[in-house]
Write a structure and sequence with these properties.
heterodimer, A: alpha/beta, Rossmann fold, four-stranded mixed β-sheet, two-stranded parallel ribbon, 13 helices, 56% helix, B: two-stranded antiparallel ribbon
């Protein structure tokens, strides 16, 4: 046999390409709408991209299709090896936080793939966001492979490989409007069932306006909040949510205050206050739950925020709901 | 008004620092910079406690109580009476 032996005849190396097919794009679409989120996996192991030689670079990623596909498509035109860790179908950053994209898994995969016999060099390029799970010096000690951290985004890999270094910009995580927009389908999907139930219950209790108010304050948190996040005032998610919920509640409050001229003024005012109390609390709660989807909230910060604002949310919501019940009888 | 994110648990002992620069390389928020072969905390407030710097500091100069900054996970854990907070998103 000559050296140009096909990759597929080597039992421990799987073949892949940098081309994304229509099927891959359909899979990405399903991920983004939250369809079977845990099941977008590739088989862990060592992959050959193009026609890699023993001198080719080795890139490491997780077995989530979005992660694997971002990596291989960014490496178009490069012959390389890709070592896919078993991250249980979870992206690199979250898996690193859980420890599945971790030192032990990496060391185990290097051995399982017989990597030291496949390549002559001893360098692995890891995504920077894998670092919370991997101790580079420990990998070196246990396998002899040196871990270098590449850029945060796979799309920066061509520039990184050219310069052989990451610029400070490549090392930064952002949370751009585009980053936030792709999250919206999943955010809305996760709130859809509670929203429909709330709207239905409110419809029978208080009519169409109450149902609309219920849906509006949940949608404000799930849909408008992620879009508007950097522009909403105050530093905390809860207070931003209270503000946004207040804005959304305003037309409902005005409608209550202006409507029904035959009601006395204090019934109308009380009716308006219901909306202004109950709606912002719901939006604030949904907004607080968005913390985990962002790229910058600390555990300490979220804890402090919860201890400061969960109670005000509960108190304003319950007061608003109680008022609504009381005024329903007065009316 | 309270800014819940102003403080965090990041601790850096520059006397132990050997200047390898790993912390600056792994931090996604530019918290560390390497100056004159020593790491310097330049954006402490931006730390999100992911733990990458601590994990990759071979000198043991960095300590941070890392964990998920996710209210949904904390509420989930509290409701189920679990001490361990882990993200259940996939």
């Amino acid at each position: 046999m000559n050296e140009l032996v096909s990759l597929t005849t080597q039992p421990n190396i799987l073949a892949t390409t940098s081309r994304l097919t229509r099927r891959d794009r359909w899979d990405h679409f399903l991920v983004r709408v939250g369809h079977r989120r845990g099941e977008h996996r590739v088989a862990p192991g060592l992959y050959g991209l193009g026609r890699p030689s023993p001198d080719s670079a080795v890139f490491v990623t997780g077995n989530y299709t979005l992660s694997f596909d971002a990596l291989r498509s960014a490496l178009a035109g490069t012959d390389a090896y890709i070592l896919v860790l078993d991250t249980k179908g979870v992206n690199v950053w979250c898996a690193a936080g859980k420890g599945t994209f971790g030192t032990d898994e990496l060391v185990g995969r290097i051995r399982l793939a017989g990597l030291s016999a496949v390549v002559k060099h001893r360098t692995l390029i890891l995504p920077q966001l894998g670092a919370p799970g991997v101790a580079a010096h420990e990998v070196k000690k246990r396998t002899g492979f040196r871990v270098v951290y590449g850029p945060v985004r796979a799309s920066d890999l061509p520039d990184y490989l050219r310069a052989r270094d990451a610029t400070p910009e490549m090392r930064r995580v952002r949370f751009t409007l585009g980053d936030r927009l792709v999250l919206l389908p999943v955010e809305v999907r996760n709130r859809l069932l509670p929203m429909l139930i709330a709207a239905l219950v409110l419809y029978f209790l208080g009519g169409l306006t109450a149902a609309l108010a219920g849906a509006a304050c949940i949608l404000a948190g799930a849909l408008a909040f992620p879009i508007l996040l950097p522009w909403l005032p105050t530093p905390n998610f809860s207070t931003k949510g209270f503000f946004l919920g207040g804005v959304v509640a305003l037309p409902f409050a005005l409608w209550a205050a202006a409507g029904h001229p035959d009601w006395s003024w204090w019934v109308r005012a009380g009716h308006a206050v219901e909306f202004l109390l109950a709606m912002p609390a719901v939006t604030a709660f949904v907004a607080l739950n968005f913390t985990g989807a962002t790229t910058f909230t600390s555990r300490t910060g979220v804890k402090r925020e919860m201890s400061a604002y969960i109670r005000p949310m509960a108190v304003t919501f319950v007061t608003g709901a109680a008022l609504a019940i009381v005024f329903a009888f007065i009316r | 008004m309270l800014d819940a994110y102003r403080e965090n648990t990041l601790f850096f002992n520059s006397e132990l620092c050997r200047g390898c620069g790993m912390c600056a390389a792994v931090c996604p928020h530019g918290v560390f910079e390497l100056r004159d072969r020593k790491a310097v905390l330049v954006r402490r407030r931006a730390c999100m406690e992911c733990g990458a710097c601590q994990k990759n500091c071979l000198a043991g100069a960095i300590a941070v109580e890392s964990g998920v900054g996710c209210a949904a996970a904390m509420i989930h854990a509290a409701l189920r009476g679990r001490k361990e907070v882990s993200c259940d998103c996939s």
